[in-house]
Specification:
- The complex is a heterotrimer.
- By secondary structure, chain A is an alpha/beta fold.
- Chain A is 33% helix and 27% strand.
- Chain A has a six-stranded mixed beta sheet with strand order 6-7-8-3-9-10, with helices on both faces. Chain A has a four-stranded antiparallel beta sheet with strand order 2-1-4-5, with helices on one face.
- The longest helix of chain A is centred in the middle third of the chain and has 13 residues.
- The termini of chain A are far apart.
- By secondary structure, chain B is mostly helical.
- In chain B, helix 1 packs parallel to helix 5 and helix 5 packs across helix 6.
- Chain C has a domain of 211 residues.
- Chain C has 15 helices and four strands.
- The chains are: A alpha/beta, B mainly alpha, C mainly alpha.
- Chains in contact: A-B, B-C.
- At the B-C interface, helix 3, helix 4, helix 9 and helix 11 of B face helix 5, helix 11 and helix 13 of C.
Chain lengths: 236, 287, 335
Amino acid sequence: MSLLEVNNIEARYGDLKALFGISLAINPGEVHSVIGANGAGKSTLLKVIAGTLPATAGSLTFHGQDLAHLSAYKRVRAGISLVPEGRRIFSSLTVEENLKVGSYSRRKGHWNLNNIRDLYPLLAERWDRIGFHCSGGELQMLAIARALMANPDLLLIDEASLGLAPVVVAQVYASLPHITSQGTAVLLVEQDMQQALRASTHTSVLLEGKVVLEGSSSALNKDEIKRAYFGMEGRA
Amino acid sequence: MIWTNAIIQGLLTGGLYALLACGLSLIFGVMRIVNLSHGDFSILAAYGVVALAMHTNLILAIVLVLPVMAFLGYFLQRGILNRSLSKGALAPLLITFAFSIIIQNLLLQIFSSDNRSVQSGRFASMSFKITKNLQIGALPLLTFIVGVLLTLGLHYFLTYSRVGRALRASSDDPGAADLVGINNKHIYGIATAIGLFAAGIGGVLFGMRTQFAPSFGPIALIFAFESVIIGGLGSLWGTLIGGIVLGIGQSIGAQIQPSYGVLAGHLVFIAILIFRPQGLMPKQKGK
Amino acid sequence: MEISYVVSRGTRLNKVLPFIFAALLLALVALPKVLAIPYQVKFVQAFILIILATMWNLLAGFGGLVSIGQQAFIGIGAYSLVYISDIQGINPFVALALAAVLCGVFALPLSFLVFRLSGGYFAIGTWVIAEIIKLFVVQVKTLGGGSGISLGAFSGMGRETRIAAIYWSALVAIFLTLLSTILLMRSKLGLALTAIRDDETAAGVLGVNVLRNRRSVFVMVSMGFGLAGGLIAMSNLRVQPDDIFSVNYSAIMIFMVVIGGLGTIEGPIFGAIIYYFLQDRLKDYGTWYLIILGLLGIAIVSLAPEGLWGWISRNRFSLFATKYRISQMSKERGA
């Protein structure tokens, strides 16, 4: 049994259907990347898993438990944490306070303030700075660190590299192995295809709300991925 | 000497206004709801103590009433107000205004429009002589101390406790709070519980200092509101300072002519609105 | 078959309605000839309620300005009427118009003050202003101080003539407020207000001057409240500061608008009529009556936030064609 099983999920924003039957499975300690063009439904998928957007069809099971009637804050308590698009750091709280709020659900595990300092030394230097005054890179690290403070079994990361300098992106990705070494599975949404393939064990390619290609990241053929990414399978 | 006296009395009254106001400020800070029934809940608590004190002693009556206020706050928030939050800014305003009318008229029905007061016996008339012409009443002093202590307590609660941090997080971004495992509805309930608890303390001390009737809620709300605006929105210490400035303004006005007291307080409020609309101690950007 | 869309203001209903309204107006004008005085008084009360509800709705439902201090202008209107007609000796019906104008003159500078507050704090801010004005009025000896002042301008007039005259004034007042509300909503300002209400930021970005439009509405409705205040003074023949500046006016206005339907023109009229009959029926129950109103208000806001009118019409039709609507029609039929 996988940690998370997504079966034929559909979702919509009002009249606009965004996901058309998505399925995937994630095992503990695994990094699963979801890639695709803008509007392919990557972020929508994460929202559905995190519980901020309801699925209109299909099922989600986590640790064998049906997630359908669990609201977002209860899913955090169950072990799913989302690093949202735009980071959503509490701007009036300091770095330390943001991290402490992250542990609000009181889940036990490896991650605490000390281990976060080791994971992201840069955050340790900014400890008393309020979120409002943090840079983009600091915010991204803080967002991941805040999610880790809940000691999730599954970490969802939405567009980790968006708008960041390459040096910072490298630092963020370098931290992934430390996270998965604790048994945490990571579901990564990423626009940068190379980055995603390098960091993950499995990859799903989304196009117009459907999974068009899926497999082990090392085994997938680059050209095949490109065609799937842009939806050109017919012309190949 | 008269003026020193007026200023000191105003300062002490400011503590009362801070008590009436800090709950209003907290509820607004967390949910952006302006609780138009805030003053009525203060008066409700005062009546609760009056009614209970007939059967038991004053301290026990207060100890019993204040938790009831907190529970009432929690359940009104979760049962009625939370539902209205998604229906735009108008709905919570209308609902709290309706609370105000309901409380006033229930009190009128039960207690009539006669003036009442919370009897604190000899304590009400005790005072300390500072100089020949300057006396400080024990009750105003107690009110002031409670006002400062409550502000301090709330400050520590919001800064250092798990739930306090969650309140601030929820105020910053409820959506993100949801994502770290915070149940916003519960947090809102707690905010209103604390707000009405504080309103209750203010109401009881108000009722010990002066006579009151069911119609006094609105004036308590107005003083609380003026304290919040004078001090600066979103700042707890600002609210205390605002209460003190309002208290001193009223007391100086009353020294000129007794009927000018309230008016002078209003004029201080208007002056702040014209010359320093962000208040005396506004919330820092992002803070 | 091609489908095309037609943008129009009304439905077929709105082609017939003007004739019905005209007939209704004629009937109302002729009413004092056939109706006994006590009923005329009741009509005046209902007219005043409709004016109040319509004005409050214009402010909150279209202007997005929720105020609980509009009794300031009811009071200014009432006192102005007494002052202008009794003390300045001007004809009371001219004084009524002047009282309304005076309210607009007061409202303009006050708007600069209260517009510094927003949302709920704006609401209480306006209330404080009303309290301050009351406290000032109480200090003025010529206006009777705390005990109030009687209106003497009608003393030479017989009761029957007086009531009929007040009735016609109220009819003119309600006609003017309703007409100007409808015209306003069909004007550019009305369109701007709707845009601001729907999305303030977006409207601002598109070049709608949010503040100026809101200020215009604030001043306009204040004149309407002044008119209502003047009529209240006329029908009570007395003005008392604690009554005329009472926040209860705000409670009643909010109740009427919410129960009828905020943001429509018909809703508040409907709400005012419901309120009129409710208070007529329930006023013997004293305090319980206000408790019931409060509970009813909470129930409506929670369960039917669009109000009773919204619930009945379901946005399918309107009596006063002010909203644009899009309807589909096929090419064959449309051509």
